[in-house]
Amino acid sequence: MKYYFAPMEGVTGSLYRRVHATHFPGLDRYFIPFLEPREGKCFDGRDKREIDPAENRGIPVVPQMLTNRADRFLEGARRLAELGYGEVNLNLGCPARTVVTRGKGCGLLERPEELERLLDEIFAKSPLPISVKTRLGISEEEEFDDLLKLYRRYPMTELIVHARVLDDQYKGPVRQDCFARSLEGAPWPVCYNGDLFTARGIEAFAQRFPQTDRLMLGRGLIGNPGLVRERKEGRPVTRQELRAFHDQLLEEYRIRLSGDRNVLCWMKELWFYMICLFPDGGKEAKAIRKAQRLEDYQLAVSWLFEQRELKTEVGYHR
Question: CA 253, CA 249: separation in Å to the nearest integer?
C-alpha cells in the first residue's frame, strides 16, 4: 500500500512536512497545498516558498494546483518543471465556498464543458505528467458516472477520489459504494481519500477494496501523525514521540514566524485535529484554544502530555 499526505491548507505547509518526515518517515508522497498560478509572476509569496526545492529537500512532494485557467495551469507546470518537479496535481475537490464560487476546485465539476476544455488543453500541452484529485460530483453521486467517462479520456498518472459530493462537505459518511465504480476498468491507478482515521479503519478499507493499492490520508494523519507507521508496523505513536514532534514544530514556527499570535494560530489549528489522541483532555483543549501567550499555551500542552492518557485507537472524529 502507498500512503499519501493530503494537502491541508493552514496545516501541512513546508515546515510541517519537513518536521513530520523527520519524526515519522515512510510516506510515499506529500501533496503541496493549493498553489494558485497568477498572471505575471505565476507563483509568489507563500506559493513561491512552498515550491522552493530547498524547502522540500529529501521529501517526496507533489505540487497541487487550484485553477480553472489552462494557460495559468500550463505556465505553472512549466515553472514547476524548471524547478525539477516530476508531476503536478489538479485540484477538482476543494469544497470551500470561496473556491467553488470562483469556478475552481469542486466548482469546476458543475461546469462540464469548461472542465472538458481545461482537461483537453492541459493534457495536450503540459510539460509534466498530471494527476487529478476529484469529488464524486456536486449534489448526487450519480454525477460520478459522467465524470468518470470524461476522466477516462485522459492519460493521467492517477485519479485520487474523495468519496463525497460537494454538498456533503466533510460531514456524514463517505460514499464508498460509489467510489467502487472508479475501479471498474480504470486505465490508471485509483487512490482513495476520505475518513480513514485509525489503523483499524485502514485495515477494514483494505479488506473491502483489496484492489486499491494507494490511500490519501488527511485529517486522520494530522490527528495522529504516526498513523501510517502504526498501520505498517503495528507500532502506535508514543507520548514521548508525539511530544518531540510537537516541540520541534513549535520551535520551527517560533523561528520562522513573528509574534506569539502567528505561532499560536498554526499550533491551535494543529491541535484541532491532534486533540483526538487525548479523549479525556477537554479541559486542556479549552486552555489551548484560549491561550493568548506562548507561556500559557505551553503550560496547557505540558499538562496534557503529563496528565492525560494517549489513545491512538480513538482517531479523529468530527
Answer: 6
- Which cell numbers in the block locate residue 74? 500550463
User: Mean pLDDT by 10-residue block, N- to C-terminus, for the chain (318 residues)?
Assistant: 95 97 98 90 88 96 97 96 97 95 95 97 98 97 96 98 95 92 96 97 97 97 98 97 98 94 96 96 96 97 96 85
Same domain? 50 vs 152: yes
Predicted local confidence at residue 42, as pLDDT: 87
The answer to whether residues 190 and 278 belong to one domain is: no
Q: For residue 56, what is the DSSP state?
A: G
The answer to whether 178 and 146 are in contact (CB under 8 A) is no
Q: How many residues does the chain have?
A: 318
If asked whether residues 169 and 110 sit together in one domain, one would say yes
Q: Is residue 317 part of a domain?
A: no
Going by C-alpha positions, the residue among 121, 120, 62, 126 that lies closest to residue 91 is 62
Task: Answer yes or no: is 165 within a domain.
Answer: yes
pLDDT at 48: 92
pTM of the model: 0.96
Instruction: Say if residues 224 and 168 touch (Cβ distance below 8 Å).
Output: no
Q: Are 80 and 128 in contact (CB under 8 A)?
A: yes
Among 200, 232, 264, the domain-final residue is 232
